[in-house]
Amino acid sequence: QQVIGFTIAPQVLQVLFICILFHRLQVGAVIAVVMVSVVIFSVYSVVVAQWKNRIRRVMNEAENRVSEKAVDSLLNFETVKYFGAEQFEVDRYSHNLGEYQEATLRTQMSQGVYFTGQNFVVTIGGAIAMVFASQQCFRGQITVGEWVMIQGYLGALFGPLYHLGNNYNTINQSMTDMENLLALRELVPEVRDVPAAPPLNISEGRVEFRHVWFNYGKDSTGKLVDVSFQVEPGRFLAIVGPTGSGKSTIMRLLLRFYDLERGEIFVDGQNIAHVQQTSLRKRVGIVAQDTVLFNDTLEYNIGYGKPDATTAEISAAARAAQLGS
Ligand SMILES: Nc1ncnc2c1ncn2[C@@H]1O[C@H](COP(=O)(O)OP(=O)(O)OP(=O)(O)O)[C@@H](O)[C@H]1O
Ligand SMILES: [Mg+2]
């Protein structure tokens, strides 16, 4: 909006004023050439910009792949090492980098074509207009002074036109670059807090699943059918079953990563679908199947779930896990 308000609008006004001026000088041929140049310039800019955007999109996708591969192989460094796949990862990364490099070159090339073409239209248009102006000057229809004035104004006209093309290019390019971001922003999370949801209030820690039905989607094999159980405060519950039977799913539902198809889950009598998600997750401790550590101190890792934990609390937790001395 700012670009349109502060740069494009004044430029359009300038073009209009100069056209009116030429009209009063009665140099019809010059006006005609200017009009035709402006039309060719605009059509060319729009058409070539679309072609250019397609090339740029390919470059952006290549760039995404490069960072994806880098993050992926670094995050899974242990797996990479288990399989001695360092060289494989390096090759894969180089391959993607090569693609990105090529795409960048093509983008630069398309940029060159875009600006060269615009320059060409402006230069040829200006030259032809000056030929007509000169003819009129020789015939005595305009004075030499007016000829010089026309030349000056043509410069003042094609300059802004060129800027206009530039701005159009900038906007177009930014829009292409932001496509993924804008699409992401349109997404609405499936699990949302109900309006004015209160925080979860835990006193004892009683957990109850009441007739819970759940599946991951229409085509998914994973589903829970009418699951009910209660865990009294201070008691342990072990869930045993074959792989894929839904043990981790029960944990995910307790943390409300998904909403249920039917049924309710209660913690201390409060339906977890009706409390703030963050307050629920803050109060549930979890030790996952595969443990990961942040690249920081043990203290930082142990205290991660409770940023305001004291050193004494962290030491106690470490001792409880047979970590501390
Ligand atoms: N995000 C998901 N989208 C679709 N289906 C899923 C998803 N996560 C798990 N599933 C499916 O749901 C079922 C239950 O998965 P879950 O991870 O709960 O099994 P599990 O009992 O924890 O298995 P394991 O003993 O291997 O840890 C499986 O069939 C699995 O393929
Ligand atoms: Mg599991």
UniProtKB/TrEMBL annotation:
The keyword Signal does not apply. SUPFAM superfamilies: ABC transporter transmembrane region, P-loop containing nucleoside triphosphate hydrolases. Its main location: membrane. This is ABC transmembrane type-1 domain-containing protein. It comes from Compsopogon caeruleus. It holds the Pfam family ABC_tran. PROSITE patterns: ABC_TM1F. The chain crosses the membrane at residues 25-49, 113-133. Keywords: Membrane, Transmembrane, Transmembrane helix. GO terms for molecular function: ABC-type transporter activity; ATP binding; ATP hydrolysis activity. InterPro entries: ABC1_TM_dom, ABC1_TM_sf, ABC_transporter-like_ATP-bd, P-loop_NTPase, Type_1_exporter. Residues 6-173 form the ABC transmembrane type-1 domain. It is a multi-pass membrane protein. GO terms for cellular component: membrane. The keyword Transmembrane helix applies. The lineage of its organism: Eukaryota, Rhodophyta, Compsopogonophyceae, Compsopogonales, Compsopogonaceae. It is found in: Membrane.
